[in-house]
Design goal:
The protein is of the alpha+beta class. Helices cover 41% and strands 25% of the residues. Helix 2 packs antiparallel against helix 3.
Length: 142
């Protein structure tokens, strides 16, 4: 495991056919993480509940302590989709409108935000497929 990997320890709360629900033992501090929308939902008592895709989920049982790790390539991919690409879309649309249609003036910013809205709808529609691209490694701990 490299230091760029995202890792959390926790206890399995629910086991389904192809995913695990894990209550973390530590405070995840996911506010700055690009993949938080793909793996995280708020639990109680300052704990986080992670729902992760796991092909071998049936090998685990409720109550087991595990460590889950997302590779740095997964977090970089999520950063691309969540931060970098929307910035490029907004900047490109605004700049393209300003250069191609100077008469639009300030409307180019509104068009840029409209493009971001369409991009957000695309992300929402593809959220399950994108979440499956985050590769989590799950290992039992004592």
């Amino acid at each position: 495991m490299s230091k760029e990997d995202v890792s959390h320890k926790g206890v399995i709360q629910r086991v389904e056919r192809d995913y695990l629900v894990i209550s973390t033992e530590d405070d995840c501090k996911c506010e700055g993480c690009a993949i938080t929308a793909l793996c995280n939902s708020k639990g109680g008592e300052n704990r986080e509940t992670l729902t992760i895709d796991c092909p071998g989920a049936s090998d685990f049982s409720v109550g087991e302590r595990v460590e889950v790790t997302a590779t740095s390539s997964s977090t970089l991919r999520a950063t691309w989709w969540a931060l970098i690409l929307p910035t490029l879309i907004f900047g490109g649309v605004v700049l393209g409108c300003r250069l191609g249609f100077p008469a639009l003036g300030g409307w180019s910013i509104a068009i840029g935000f409209a493009a971001l809205g369409l991009y957000d709808l695309f992300l929402y529609a593809q959220r399950r497929r994108l979440a499956q691209k985050i590769s989590w490694k799950v290992r039992r701990i004592r």
